[in-house]
Structure formats: structure tokens, C-alpha cells
Specification:
It is built from 10 helices and no strands. It has helices at residues 2-16, 23-48, 54-74, 84-100, 109-125, 127-134, 140-156, 162-183, 191-216, 237-264.
């Protein structure tokens, strides 16, 4: 499902780059795709990290994710991400207050705050896709990046140990980037930058898979009857969506950086 989401974001970016009814209509598909990514992360991250207040944490991630998206779309001048540090600080304050409200003797308070803050960072990272779309130039960096993420995720879900799938994910990311680069008419990215982007995104997918997969295959620790300790997290749809959506969100940061390279270093 996360792979379908990556394809949808790439397709809407491609369609949005050729407006037929004005700029306002052109950004609607991309805005919907990025908002859907925020919704996926907001729903699944508390379930992946076994938050004791999963719905309250989901609301918090969704509110700050939409606020980040709104500030990105409403920003007039680049870099379009100037409000994200403020939102991150406010989210950190929310996380502390939320966990303090549980009581001074609440268990795993530090782990819950850390997981919640990490979720905010991942969710706000998705805003970089919208910011990249708004930068001058074509959408070649977005399509190249999403192609790399798509093939890298295909490699990472193969039923082999991580020591095999991680190198395959890096190679698949490079192949995906080169395929998208070759298929684009006149990309603003060069062959060198597209290759580097593919390798970095492939490595990102492999790193996220190694970091989050052990958490996903663990058991629930909460004592709620609906979250039995005998039930694995990986059986939940939200957890699977988050495993796929996290590298897409974080990959937007890499794409955003490479989208600005032609403006800074035209020969790269």
C-alpha cells in the first residue's frame, strides 16, 4: 500500500506540473497526495511505537502535519519550510504536556516522548514533498526520487535477511533513479545527481527498514484487551502503512535538497 502511495504522489506531481485550469487547480492533486501521506503517518506511527494514548497522539501528529502542509503551501517565497522549526517546537511542548498529564509515575514516559517527537519529525518531513513541488523548475527530482524509493522498497520486502536486502535496496534505488532519468524529456537533474540521489534514497529505505522492522515484529506491551500481548504489531494495517510511509516522508528531504542543486551548482 505504501508503494501505491509513492506512485500516486509521483503521478499527481507529474499531472500537477502541467496545469490546465490555472495554478490553483494544478496543486490540488499534489496537496491531496501529501495530505494522505500525513494521514497515514499520523494513524500508523502511534500503533507502531505502541503509544499508550494512540488516538491522542494520532490527533497531535495529524494537526501538526496539516499545519506544516498548510504553511508550506501558503508560503510565498522559497524555501517554503520556514515555519517547520516553530511547529516542531510546539509539538515537542505538546508531547511533554501530554505525557505529564498521564501522571508522574506513568511507565515508559521517556520512551513515549521520544517516540512521539520522532513521529513529529517524520510527519513534518513529508512537507518537503510539497516544498519541492513549489520550487522553480520541472518535477524531475520528484519523479526520480519516487522511482528510486519504489524499487528500493520492492527490494526491501523480499523474504531474505537484511544483510541481503539492504544492498539490493541501494542497487534498486540507483536503478530506479536511472530509469526515471532516462524516461524524462529534459530533466533539470544531471546523470550524476540522479545517480547520487538514487543511492542515497536506496540507503535510506534500507536504514529505515532495519530500524523499524524489529519494532514492527515485536509484541504489544499495553494491557488493553484490544491490544493483546500475544498479538504482533505487524498484523495491523496502520503499522504496515507506517513502515512504507516513513521512508517516503524522509525521502522528501533528500529530494528537496537535490531539487535545489541545479540552482546552486548547475554542473552537478
Amino acid at each position: 500500500m505504501a508503494l501505491v502511495g509513492a506512485l500516486a504522489l509521483g503521478a499527481t506531481s507529474l499531472l500537477g506540473s502541467y496545469p490546465l485550469a490555472g495554478e490553483a487547480v494544478a496543486v490540488i492533486p499534489v496537496a491531496l497526495a501529501t495530505a494522505a501521506l500525513v494521514g497515514v503517518l499520523a494513524f500508523g506511527w502511534p500503533r507502531l511505537t505502541d503509544s499508550p494514548q494512540r488516538w491522542l497522539t494520532s490527533i497531535m501528529l495529524f494537526v501538526f502535519g496539516l499545519a506544516g502542509m498548510g504553511s508550506t503551501w501558503m508560503s510565498i517565497y522559497p524555501p517554503h519550510l520556514e515555519w517547520l522549526p516553530l511547529l516542531t517546537g510546539l509539538a515537542l511542548l505538546w508531547a511533554f504536556v501530554q505525557n505529564l498529564a498521564r501522571g508522574i509515575e506513568a511507565s515508559n514516559a521517556v520512551a513515549n516522548v521520544s517516540a512521539q517527537v520522532a513521529g513529529v519529525v517524520v510527519t513534518l518531513a513529508a512537507c518537503s514533498w510539497a516544498a519541492s513541488f513549489r520550487l522553480p523548475g520541472d518535477e524531475s527530482a520528484i519523479i526520480i526520487g519516487l522511482s528510486a524509493i519504489f524499487l528500493a522498497q520492492c527490494a526491501s520486502i523480499l523474504p531474505f535477511p537484511a544483510r541481503y536486502t539492504s544492498p539490493l535496496a541501494i542497487i534498486a534505488g540507483l536503478v530506479g533513479a536511472l530509469i526515471a532519468y532516462s524516461a524524462w524529456w529534459y530533466p533539470t537533474q544531471t546523470l550524476v545527481s540522479a545517480s547520487i540521489m538514487g543511492v542515497l534514497l536506496g540507503g535510506l529505505v534500507a536504514a529505515v527498514d532495519r530500524a523499524l522492522a524489529p519494532i514492527a515484529v515485536g509484541r504489544f506491551h499495553a494491557r488493553s484487551p484490544r491490544r493483546s500481548p500475544n498479538r504482533s504489531k505487524v498484523r495491523e494495517v496502520g503499522v504496515n502503512l507506517t513502515l512504507g510511509g516513513t521512508p517516503i516522508a524522509l525521502g522528501g528531504v533528500v529530494v528537496y535538497i537535490f531539487d535545489q542543486l541545479p540552482l546552486i551548482f548547475p554542473m552537478i
